[in-house]
Amino acid sequence: MSDKIRTLLFTVAVTALFTLLVSGVNAVLHDRIELNRSVARQRVILGLFGLVPNDRQLSDSEIPNMFAEQIEPVKFANDNAFECYRRSNSSEDVFVFAFSGQGFWDNIIGFIAVDAGSLQIKGIEFTRHGETPGLGGRISEPEFKLRFKDKSFATKRPDGLFLRMVAEGSGTRADEIDGITGATGTSTALEKIINRSLAYFNSLKQGGSSN
Amino acid sequence: MNKGPVKGFAALKRMLWEENPVIGQILGICSALAVTNLVKNTLVMCLGLIFTLAMSCFTVSLMRNVIPRRVRMIIQVLIIAAYVIFIKIVLDAFLPEISNELGPYVGLIITNCIVMGRTEGYAMANKPVDSILDGVGAGIGYSLVLLPIAMIREPLGLGTFFGMQVIPADWTKWNMMVIAPSGFFALATYIWIVRAFKSEGEKR
To answer: So what's the pLDDT on residue A80?
Structure first.
C-alpha cells in the first residue's frame, strides 16, 4: 500500500515540477511570442499596401512603428469583429481585410487587398494553410499570388461568381483566375473563399463604416 | 551485440553507424518522411531531436534510481514532452518563421520512438554522462539519415537548396519529390544502399 502511495506521490510531484518549468518558460517568453505574431501580421498587411520596400529587408523592430504611423483599422457598423485596414492620410480607396475558409485540408487564412473604387483585387497573402506541398501548397508562391492582381469583382459573372478559377493558363478575362493544375481541390476551395469574402466585404461596405 | 554496457564515447559512436536508430532499428520513420522536403526544416528538426534526446536521457538517467518501475514510462514521456514543449516555445520566440513552417512536427518529437527507445533502453540503466553521449549519438545518427534525404528531395522537388535557387528556373520540378510518398522511396533506397554496405563490412 505504501508503495502505491509513494508511486502516486512521485508521479504527482514530477508532473507538478515539469509543468511548472514549462509554464515558467512560457510566461517568460509569452510577450515575445505575441510580438512576433503581431509583427508577422503587420508585415503582411504593410506588404499588401505596397509599403514594404523591395530593395532592403525591413527589420522586425521597424514594423510596429511603421504600422502605427501609416495604417489605421476600419470598423464596419454591421460587424465589429471584421478585421480591415486602410492607409491613414491617404486618398486612395484601398482596403486590406482578413479572410479565412476551409481549404482542401486545413483552413486557409490570409489577407486580401482590394481597391474599393475600381473594385479590383490589389494583392493577396496567405498567412496559414495546410495544402499539399508542391501542389496546393503552391498558393503561397509569389507567382500564384500575382494571378489575383487587378482581377475585377465589379459585377457578377453569369454563373453567379465574382471570380472563377479556370484551368491553368486559360484565364484571359478580368474575372478569371488561373487555378493550379493538380490541385483542383485547393483551387475550388479558394474560389469559394475568395468569392464569399468579397461578397461579405461588399455587403459590409454598403452597410457603412462606424468610424 | 551483447558485449556488456557500452560507456563513454563508444555509446555515441555506435549510434552513428552500427546501431543507427533509423537504419538499424527503423525508428523515427514518421518524422523522417514528413520534414525531409526542405533542408532547413530538417536541420532544425534534427537539432531539436538531438537536444531532446540529450536532455531527456540526462534527466531520466539522473532520476533512474528513484523512478518507481511501474510508472517509469509515464515519467519518461512526461520528461520528453516537457523538453519538446520547451523547444517549441523557444522556436516560437526566436525563430518564428521556421516554427511556422515546421508546424506540428516539432511537437511530434514527443512521439518519436527514438527518444523513448533511448531513455528506456539506455538511460534507465546507465550513468548521466554516458546517457547524454548515447542520446546525442542517436540524434546525430538520425540526422545522418535525414539530411542526405532532404538534400536530394529539396533540389529535385523545388529546385532549391536551403531556400536558395540552385537548379535553373526552367527545370521541371519533380512535385513527386516534395510530397510524402517520395519520402518513402528516398528513405527505403537510402536504407537499402547503406545496408548493402553494412552487410559487405560484416562479411569480412
So the answer is: 83
Highest mean pLDDT: which range of A116-120, A171-175, B102-106, B161-165 = A116-120
Confidence of residue B8 (pLDDT cuts 50, 70, 90): confident
Positions of chain A with pLDDT lower than 50, given as ranges: none
* Residue in A85, A63, A59 with CA at minimum distance from that of residue A74: A85
Cβ contacts (< 8 Å) between B78 and chain A: which residues? 14-15, 18
Contact B179 A33 (CB under 8 A): no
Over residues B23-38, the pLDDT tens digits come to: 877 888 877 777 788 8
Cα A48 versus chain centre, distance? 11
Contact B37, B151 (CB under 8 A): no
Query: Contact, A141 vs A169, CB < 8 A?
Result: no
Residue B2 confidence (pLDDT): 47
Q: Does B103 touch chain A (CB under 8 A)?
A: yes
Q: By the CB < 8 Å criterion, does A15 face chain B?
A: yes
| Close Cβ partners of B21 (under 8 Å, ≥ 6 residues apart) | B15, B27, B28, B114, B117, B118, B138, B141, B142
Q: How many angstroms separate the CA atoms of A95 and A73, rounded? A: 10
Torsion angle defined by CA atoms of residues B171, B176, B180 and B183, in that order, rounded to the nearest 10 degrees: -70
Is B56's Cβ below 8 Å from some Cβ in A? no
How close, in Å, is residue B104 to chain A by CA atoms? Answer: 11
Distance from CA of A144 to the nearest CA of B (A): 15
Q: How far is A90 from chain B (nearest CA, A)?
A: 31
Is B1 a residue whose pLDDT tops 50?
A: no
Write out the three cell numbers for A139.
498558393
- Tell me if B149 sits within 8 A of B35, measured CB to CB: no
Inform me whether the pLDDT recorded for B203 exceeds 70. no
